[in-house]
Amino acid sequence: MYKVLVSDPISDLGIQQLMDAADVEVDKKPGLSEDELVQIIPQYDGLLVRSQTKVTEKIMEAGTRLKVIGRAGVGVDNINLEAATTRGIIVINAPDGNTITTCEHAFAMMMALARHIPQAYAKTVNGEWDRKFLGVELRNKTLGVLGMGRIGSEVAKRAKAFGMDILGYDPFLTEDRAEKLGVKLATVDDIIRNADFITVHTPLTPETKHMIARPQFEVMKKGMRIVNCARGGIIDELALVEAIDQGIVAGAAFDVFEKEPPEADHPFLNNPKIIVTPHLGASTVEAQENVAIDVSEQVLHILRNEPFKNAVNMPPVAASVMNKLQPYFGLGEKIGIFLSQLNNQAVKEIHVDYAGDLAEVDTQPLTRYIIKGVLSRHFAGDVNIVNSMHLAKVRDINVVVSQASATKGFTNLISVTLKGQDGAERRVAGTLLNGYGARIVQIDKFPVDVAPEGHLIFISHNDKPGIIGHVGTLLGKNDVNIASMQVGRKLIGGEAIMVLTVDKEVTKNVLDELTKLSELNKAQHIIFA
Q1: Strand 520-528 and strand 454-462: pairing?
Q2: Dist. CA 224–CA 244, nearest whole Å
Q3: Which range (129-143, 211-225, 491-505) has the least confidence?
């Protein structure tokens, strides 16, 4: 008999299959303190929580029987994942349970925005019969969807039913997938310039923070409207208010804020052209029940040693395999991070080649780290070593793994190639050097020796005398200190690369100055978190 503790308020319907299972005993004890949980957790095989219970290392240390922790929702910030992984406890969540609910909320906000429904309601209930609210139809309007994952794709489906033309952007959206979804593949700039409505559905990452700010508002269609039911901070809130005051943006609808809850004097709260809700995207009866049902089902599978999904930490791996692979996990992820920043187009295929001793073991866990690295630039904390393969699959990214004994002089070699939708490829290879740690030893066709850490500047240039000096002078003028330099070329006077390790982040202005140097083709800032 398995015992499961439910320590947060969850409806009986959501956990019905657990309660009905003949081999499971369920105890519902919400509101327990950490000390109280520590006292009783040793008798339980599973723990089911929402967001209230903080599942700490102390609780897991006491939970000597714990096999699984289920989070009835998406975020797992309240669970110490490292402690769970160390103790072999599987943590699962319900990433799909709120997809439709959030999609519908975004669409409801767009409808309310188009027809001034909250404003008209407020006047009507206050005794004013004001029929001057002049809205717009959605039909024949252009909707820009920034982020074509689960939620963005569902929004696009509904927009098509309303007769809208859809422009879709996602860093992993290819022409083939866009065609399947019935949207036109577009760049962020295309959407900014041409959309009548924009809705955002991306994670908040350094790249998406303020992706819509003053420069974007300046080139938008006059009278466009914008919806954010994703994450606060994707849109510059102060710049949006300015754009509304200037008549560029006709209105906005926000379910999220950069700081939640917002301060009482937040400019959104007293602007008649902005509709706001208190982060209600996932707040429906169905969504709350669906996430509990999904997690309950997976908890049951795990307790019974059956196949399961939606784990957010490392699944069990044989000790002998883990010992051989573990030193390469960090290297694999950093190769992926490096490649994701080198690449500038939608990815169709990720090809991973293992050579040497690594070709003799099951490298699936290591591949997950590599794919996580490739996807992390655009998914931030939403991608992990378990769901990385799933996220690649749902975005039609083909992952190919091959193994060979030849290592080109290295004991082990990991080579990763990204193939874009136009067939162009970017390749990075790395290895572990005794006494030196992780090393990048090849970038595209050029051999190098680079430590994947800190801040790098990757420069593509023509092999001409004086370029290194010009680059060093420009960086010095901008107070950028060079810690190390690697250069690579195949032919004298031909294409060449330069990889600089620098002491701090390099601004876009400095990179723009570099690209203006004679014979220099491109300069990119590579960051290893």
Answers
A1: antiparallel
A2: 10
A3: 491-505
* CA-based nearest residue to 414, from 341, 488, 335: 335
Q: Name the pTM for this structure.
A: 0.80
Choosing from 279, 301, 455, 470, which is the catalytic residue?
279
State in Å, rounded, how far the first CA of the chain is from the last one: 44
With contact defined as beta carbons under 8 Å apart, do 137 and 164 qualify? no
Active site residue 351: no
**CA distances in angstroms from 102 to 21, 105, 386, 525, listed in the order given:** 31, 5, 24, 35
pLDDT category at 137 given cuts 50, 70, 90 is very high
**Active site residue: 231, 378, 427, 461, which one?**
231
| Interval 407-428: pLDDT, tens | 667 889 999 999 988 888 999 9
Residue 231 annotated among the catalytic residues of the structure: yes
Catalytic residue among 128, 139, 260, 306: 260
Mean pLDDT to the nearest integer, 493-509: 93
| Strands 165-169, 142-146: pairing kind | parallel
Determine whether 260 is an active site residue: yes
- Residue 228 token pair: 């954010």
φ, ψ at 482 (rounded to 5°):
-90, 120
